[in-house]
Amino acid sequence: MLTVSTVNVNGLRAAAKKGFHGVVPDHFRGRRRVSGGEGRAGRAARRTREPEGWHTVHAPCAAKGRNGVSLYSRIEPDSVRVGFGEAEFEDSGRYVEMWLPGVVVASLYLPSGDVGTPRQDEKERFMAAFLPYLATLRDKAASDDREVLVCGDWNIAHAEIDLKNWKANRKNAGFLPEERAWLSRVFDELGYVDVQRRLDPEGPGPYTWWSYRGKAFDNDSGWRIDYHVATPGLAQRCTSLVVERAESYETRWSDHAPVTATYEV
């Protein structure tokens, strides 16, 4: 069994203060476990960055205090890669992957965007460059007899069932028609599978992100933007997928919930 969790912690130092350094060996225990997510490493304690018994790779952003992605694996990787070959995003802390026996596991933090600003332009450039890379990764992995799993914060709610207030967000970043169409291309054109929707096609939710504003978390007024996206062979071998929503607002690590799936490999 391979168990994979995607965890957006909004910074490793902040997460360490909430016990993330203890969570890695305890909550993410298992002989064949991989976890990944957004986390700005910076000066985080060594036991958070490099916990005993784990193989880690960190991809911080060159701009201090911004993005970052990491992977923690119980399995020793055959190789690792930071970035996906696009110069603009090589040191932006957006993408990292591990080549493990039989599977490539990647951690993604797709730009969030902001309509009418340079941030949305950046998001569109990222998507345009990342789509062909996903095709190349799929083919390269298949030629090496490996499946692919890209986890993380995709920052797009794909369908109306993926966010509570979809009508009010039709003109907002994360639910724009062109963003949703791009994600449809990942699934329909490239053949990747949204593992959550394979197991639960009806929805609504389960949501993985809630704004800190108002009572969004208490009212479960959220978005599903954290995904497990897999090649078909691996997606078919997923036996469970759980959004680990915190019991209360006070016990959250961040505004995201971990998403954990188990695969028979």
From TrEMBL:
InterPro entries: AP_endonuc_1 (IPR004808), Endo/exonu/phosph_ase_sf (IPR036691), Endo/exonuclease/phosphatase (IPR005135), ExoIII-like (IPR037493)
Active site, renumbered: Y109, D153 (proton donor/acceptor), H256 (proton acceptor)
Site (Important for catalytic activity): D226
Residue intervals of the Endonuclease/exonuclease/phosphatase domain: 54-256
GO molecular function: double-stranded DNA 3'-5' DNA exonuclease activity; metal ion binding
Positions annotated to bind Mg(2+): D153, N155, D255, H256
Cofactor note: Probably binds two magnesium or manganese ions per subunit.
Region spans: Disordered: 31-53
Site note Interaction with DNA substrate, residues: H256
Keywords noted in UniProt: Hydrolase, Magnesium, Manganese, Metal-binding
Stored Gene3D superfamilies: Endonuclease/exonuclease/phosphatase (3.60.10.10)
Pfam family, one: Exo_endo_phos
Residues under site feature: Transition state stabilizer: N155
Required cofactor names: Mg(2+); Mn(2+)
One Gene Ontology term from the biological process aspect of the record: DNA repair
Family the entry assigns: Belongs to the DNA repair enzymes AP/ExoA family.
Protein name as it appears in the record: Exodeoxyribonuclease III
Source organism per UniProt: Saccharomonospora cyanea NA-134
